[in-house]
Amino acid sequence: MKRYTAPPMEWSCGVLLSLIKKSGVTFEEEFELSMDGSIEYWGQSYEFSSPITAAFSAGYAGERILANIAVYSKISLSCSRCLTKTELAIGGNLRYLFSLRPIHSEAVSNARGNVESHDDIDEDGDVDVIPIDSFQAEFDISPYIWEVLLLSLPERVLCSDSCGGLCPICGKNLNEGDCGCESDSADPRLEVLRDYSIKEQGREE
Ligand SMILES: [Zn+2]
Ligand SMILES: [Zn+2]
Question: Whose CA is closest to 85, among 46, 51, 141, 57?
Fold first, then answer.
């Protein structure tokens, strides 16, 4: 199975700039993307059990393009307590602000020493403005879809809220039944530790 740490090369997510109108009508386009492999992230392997749907919507805000990218899919990930593969729906969205500018000629004028100050920060102060080359007919949004996808991946998942995890002594999955390791003959001093660790686990939730 392929392991991805960057958007798959075969993703084709070009948006034609001429389709985004200044008339105030929001342009919308949906991409269905396949992921024939896993994403390595948070030190774990995320497998996809359905295609990835990415919904792009955009309109002009003044001279800039304000866009929203929403991503949905289903993943399969090991339960962080019992390691059983667990499927769950994921989804997330981010807003982006793009500014069209002639990037090539800007580079030329910069090379001549006519460096203009860049407005890479929005007036609100916290949104990065991403330059897009106004000489190109379309721009590729796959790096942004990838970014939203990574942000929507949960750091950990439980197969159920009441997952019993694995027995620390024999390794048996306690959701499948008791293993008999925790007998009444256990050292009472260890019982205290066991209760403590259960409380600690509860606090993590
Ligand atoms: Zn579990
Ligand atoms: Zn056991």
Answer: 46
Span from the CA of 159 to the centroid of ligand 1 (angstroms): 4
127-168 tens-digit pLDDT: 689 998 888 899 999 999 999 999 999 999 999 999 999 999
pLDDT tens for residues 109-135?
Answer: 555 554 444 445 445 555 689 998 888
CA distance 91 to 105: 39
Amino acid at 47: E
| Ligand 2 centroid from CA 194, angstroms | 14
Together in a domain, 103 and 193 = no
How many angstroms is it from 60 CA to the middle of ligand 1? 46
- Consecutive H or E run containing 108: helix 103-111
Residues 128 and 69 in one domain: yes
Ligand 1 centre distance from Cα of residue 132 (Å): 45
Q: Are residues 102 and 178 in the same domain?
A: no
Residue 12 Cα, ligand 1 centroid: separation in angstroms? 36
